[in-house]
Amino acid sequence: MARIRLMTSIKAVLRILKSVGTLILLIPDMHKIASSHVNENISNFIEGRKKRFDKFSLLGHPESHYLNIMWHQGGEHNNLFDYRLLKCICEESGFINLSEITKKYLTATFPEILSRHDSEHAVVIQALKSMQMQISV
Predict the structure, then answer these.
(1) Based on the structure, what is the number of domains in the chain?
(2) Alpha carbon separation from 119 to 49, 63, 101 (Å, rounded)
(3) What is the per-residue pLDDT across 9-35, written as a single tens digit (0 to 9) for each?
């Protein structure tokens, strides 16, 4: 269900994007989050969260509860994605040249995008509008 909603949204972005346009997605990375839990190093995520939100607390819960916070984020997240899943959805929606980019590249190329200081758990995807789509639209 969430995959279909995301694909519908991505197709809408493709439709309204300028003819020479770039889509940037910055989202929590399911792979990074799950790997940190398996490798028992989720504390770096928690410390990063505390830097961004000084009042953040696990309220006495064990560190593993952070996974629930990331997965649900107060109802904002219906699903988590990783690069491979986003690439598949974006390509099925008509985008081309998908690549994972670094936050450093993102802020250097698009200085108007403010840093969220969440590199420890985020993935940044860049996708271009297809030349064929540009001509046929």
Answers:
(1) 1
(2) 11, 19, 11
(3) 888 888 888 777 888 888 888 888 888
What pLDDT, in 10s, does the model give residues 34-85?
888 788 778 888 888 888 888 989 999 998 888 888 777 766 667 778 899 8
Report which of 88, 111, 128, 118 is spatially closest to residue 26, judged by C-alpha positions: 118
DSSP class per residue in the chain: -HHHHHHHHHHHHHHHS-SS-EEEEEEEBHHHHHHHHHTT-THHHHHHHHHH-TT---TT--TTHHHHHHHHGGGT-S--B-HHHHHHHHHHHTEEEEEEE-HHHHHHH-TTS---S-TTTEEEEEEEE-HHHHHH-
Range of the domain at 123: 2-136
